[in-house]
Specification:
Homodimer. InterPro entries: D-isomer_2_OHA_DH_cat_dom, D-isomer_DH_CS1, D-isomer_DH_NAD-bd, Erythronate-4-P_DHase, Erythronate-4-P_DHase_dimer, NAD(P)-bd_dom_sf, PdxB_dimer_sf. The chain has 17 helices and 14 strands. It has helices at residues 12-16, 32-35, 51-54, 74-79, 92-110, 126-138, 147-153, 161-167, 191-196, 214-223, 242-247, 260-277, 286-289, 306-317, 320-334, 336-345, 368-374; strands at residues 2-6, 21-25, 40-43, 61-64, 83-85, 118-122, 141-145, 170-173, 202-205, 228-231, 250-251, 297-300, 357-360, 377-378. With 379 residues, it is α/β, with parallel strands linked by helices. The chain starts with a strand and ends with a strand. Helix content is 40%, strand content 15%. The strands form three sheets. The protein has a six-stranded parallel β-sheet, with helices on both faces. It has a five-stranded parallel β-sheet with strand order 2-1-3-4-5. A three-stranded parallel β-sheet has the order 12-13-14, covered by helices on one side. Helix 5 (92-110) crosses helix 6, helix 5 (92-110) crosses helix 14 (306-317) and helix 15 (320-334) crosses helix 16 (336-345). Bound molecules: nicotinamide-adenine-dinucleotide and 4-phospho-D-erythronate. Residues 67-68, 88-89, 91-92, 95, 122-128, 145-149, 174-176, 178, 183, 185, 188, 206-208, 232-233, 254, 256-257 line the site of nicotinamide-adenine-dinucleotide.
């Protein structure tokens, strides 16, 4: 079997080498020519998978090691009997870490307490529901908006987007990009909704860039400068709007889910799907491909204020300010589009909060509930 694999997929040899010859290509460069005699295509989210890529190819299996599937024409695959697999939930924990790291950073800079905020979550799937669980266990007031789920499961526990806009200090978008239908998310936050946001609202987007009207957000930020934007995803990636980038308080290059753990889970899930497709059994496990973390444990021996303790532990594992600064630096050095992709391709090794064991000594024991609610292991 010949497999064409995005070169940005970690453990590609361990996960796909056993099936045949692995040809690695940068995801944005994979073309019909590369796939002419390929049997399988393994992507991340930057390769548009559609008729023009596959019509002349022998590909019978497509796997994307990502949660999002908006880059894949699944109807085309189904019509042409091409098997398809994605990796639901693979990097959801990493995105939640990103949100917590970002909000803790903003709270410190702007002088508020995260634990006192009301957070609205739009899109309560794999990412949103994990975020909801962590925030609620931390004691925050959380409102959830997910009309497709409300339709299936009943309204209880769900709130309209209008109510979130009216009541929340922080609005977190975790919706997929859906262009048509009753629950389309393209420009879900459009000019009208952006203008309804109360001054001081934090808008965080770690879903897909097109879920927010970027021009409208830019114009509110440039005109009134009374919102805080945390943007990980953008319209027109990698050629993002440089002016919007400059106006965002935290601007990162679509890396919210970029923990090593999350990426490897994605690779492993597609390995397992491909094994099932070719009727093979697989013994490969995450432990076999995922190294131990460089920082496995740390000790706290004083009862710091809880948010200071959270920030300390969060930054020990993942400091979102570095991703913001790297994007600004690389965009300046290489231009926006090249800088954006350079940050993603050369992404530093990042682990998830759950890989850190926090030892608590003396009166630091009082921090156990808050640290474990945030996702750290507590000893
Ligand atoms: N920034 C990143 O690195 C990163 C990482 C992972 C996922 N993502 C993006 O985040 C999206 C969500 O991930 P997930 O794993 O939670 O997906 P998911 O499919 O598990 O959940 C998405 C949820 O959004 C809801 N939804 C759909 N339309 C909606 C609408 N109009 N309004 C409100 N809710 C709506 C769905 O009902 C579902 O519950 C992915 O599709 C992907 O595009 C980004
Ligand atoms: O959909 C996903 O899983 C995430 O957006 C993921 O982080 C995308 O990764 P990329 O394709 O940008 O490497």
């Amino acid at each position: 079997m010949k497999l064409v694999v995005d070169a940005n997929i970690p453990a590609a040899d361990a996960c796909f080498g056993g099936f045949g010859e692995v040809i690695k290509r940068p995801g944005r460069e994979i073309s019909a020519e590369h796939l002419r005699d390929a049997d399988a295509l393994i992507t991340r989210s930057v390769t548009p998978v559609n008729a023009s890529l596959l019509a002349e190819s022998a590909v019978r299996f497509v796997g994307t090691c990502t949660i999002g599937i908006d880059h894949v024409d699944t109807h085309y695959l189904a019509e042409h009997d091409i098997a398809f697999a994605s990796a639901p939930g693979c990097n959801a924990e990493a995105v939640v870490d990103y949100v917590l790291a970002s909000l803790l950073t903003l709270a410190e800079r702007q002088g508020w307490r995260l634990l006192d905020r009301c957070v609205g979550i739009v899109g309560v799937g794999n990412v949103g529901s994990r975020l909801q669980a962590r925030l609620q266990t931390l004691g925050l007031d959380v409102l959830a908006c997910d009309p497709p789920r409300a339709e299936r499961e009943g309204e209880s526990g769900f709130t309209s987007l209008e109510t979130l806009i009216e009541r929340c200090d922080v609005l977190c978008l975790h919706t997929p990009l859906v262009s048509t239908g009753p629950h389309a998310t393209q420009h879900l936050l459009d000019a009208e909704r952006i203008n309804e946001l109360a001054p001081g609202t934090v808008v965080l987007n770690a879903g897909r860039g097109d879920c927010i009207d970027g021009l409208a957000l830019r114009s509110r930020l440039a005109g009134q400068n009374d919102l805080t934007a945390v943007l990980d995803v953008w319209e027109n990636e990698p050629a993002i709007d440089a002016a919007l980038h400059d106006l965002a308080t935290l601007a990162t290059p679509h890396i919210a889910g970029y923990s090593l753990d999350g990426k490897l889970r994605g690779s492993l899930m597609i390995h397992q799907a491909l094994a099932a497709h070719v009727n093979e059994t697989s013994e490969l496990s995450l432990n076999a491909i995922c190294p131990s973390p460089a920082l496995a444990s740390m000790t706290l021996q004083q009862a710091l204020p809880s948010e200071d303790a959270l920030r300390l532990c969060a930054r020990a594992v993942y400091d979102v300010r570095r991703d913001h600064e790297r994007l600004t630096r690389e965009a300046y050095a290489l231009g926006v589009a090249k800088g954006f992709d350079a940050c993603r391709v050369n992404y530093p090794l990042r682990r998830e909060f759950s890989t850190l064991s926090v030892r608590l000594k003396g009166d630091a024991h009082t921090l156990a509930p808050v640290l474990s609610a945030a996702g750290f292991r507590v000893e």
